[in-house]
Amino acid sequence: MTTHAVPPLVEVQPLPSIDTTRLFRPAGDVWSPIDKFIANTNAINVILTGATADRDPTPELSSVVVLGYLSAVETYFRTLLSRLAHIDDLTMEALGQKQLLFSVAMKRPRETLAEALYEDSFASLKELKARLGEIGMKPLPGEIDTALETYERICHVRHCCVHRFGYLGNKNANDLGISKHHHLIGGLFSASTDDLADIADALQVFVKTCNNHIFRFIIDRTVTFQNDPNHEFEWDWKWSWKYKTDKKHFKSYYDLFALVEGRPASLPMKDAYKHFKDSNAKKVADMTARLNAAIAVPTSGRTPQSNPD
Q1: What is the pLDDT of residues 200-232, one digit of tens each?
Q2: Is residue 5 part of a domain?
Q3: Helices 243-257 & 193-226, crossing angle to 10 degrees?
Q4: Residue 308 binned pLDDT confidence (cut-offs 50, 70, 90)
Q5: Beta bridge partners of 188
Q6: pLDDT in tens, 96-120
Q7: What is the number of structural domains in the chain?
Q8: Which domain holds residue 266?
Q9: Of 79, 126, 133, 179, which cross-links 33 as Cys (Cβ 3.0–4.6 Å)?
Q10: Average pLDDT along the chain
């Protein structure tokens, strides 16, 4: 009795061998996170422009472009927060409670260990707020909260592109507003060039807004905690309010947050330091006055009695 060979329904070719060690190359220059974000976004724009010179983007290209834009945003936050842990003692103290897998800690060099903290996603409002909360930013400034509403909507679009090949699902329709999107459930994401330009612009505004507020929060916090006798953190340096003396410490913060390669570029470092000093002068004076007043109050709470003759 002979066995009849059943041909496969779909012809399958031999499986290629994928050597992942050949798929990566050195990253090159180390830019500030905001500079790298702008460069990454511009690189995606070049691809988009080249592919749509004489036609509208296809739904597939629209999805890929949105994925690229959001990837640039996530890379910005991961790079910023991991590097921040290296230069800001208060951030490192806050992240000291964050758990790491032992295997990760053993395999990462000490210099890059902080980057392992940010394998987490930043592609949702909840996740981003949680990450910023970990470094002490809660509640968020009003400007960031307003920008987050637009960021969250773009994240829902991204979810469709990643998990549903661009098709709008019921959950994302509900998150975007079911009353306006119920009739679009099952529809395919198909953005125009102008739509994608608006998304790119909105994300640039969002990231720049976050960058400015995180910078001010982090650097102003050093002033507050250095002058707060109730905070037990031990500082091995303190602002002198003299540029030449403070330049080393201020530069580490400035270099992390400043936009240098992009346009318009950030203020020169000396000008940024002057604004930092001027904006904190009254705060330091008030804290010093309160501390001196507290020291002047007798600890017993009673008026000292004069000795009789």
Answers
A1: 999 999 999 999 999 999 999 998 888 776 766
A2: no
A3: 150
A4: very low
A5: 167
A6: 665 554 444 444 554 454 455 556 6
A7: 1
A8: 31-230+237-295
A9: 79
A10: 83
Encoding tokens for residue 169?
Answer: 């699902």
Per-residue CA distances from 28 to 47, 86, 119 (Å): 20, 20, 21
Say which DSSP state 4 is in. P
Which amino acid does the sequence have at 296?
A
Kindly state whether residue 204 falls inside one of the protein's structural domains.
Answer: yes
Q: Distance between CA atoms of 223 and 221, rounded to whole angstroms?
A: 5
Q: Which residues contact 128 (CB under 8 A, 6 or more apart)?
A: 77, 122, 148, 151
Which pair of structure tokens corresponds to residue 235?
Answer: 């500082």
- Using 50, 70 and 90 to split pLDDT, how confident is the model at 67? very high
**pTM greater than the 0.85 cutoff:** no
> Terminus-to-terminus CA distance in the chain, angstroms?
132
CA 18 to chain centre: 33
Contacts of 121 (CB under 8 A, 6+ apart): 74, 127
Cis peptide upstream of residue 264 (ω within 30 degrees of 0): yes
CA contacts within 13 A on the Cβ side of 64? 11
Q: Is residue 39 part of a domain?
A: yes
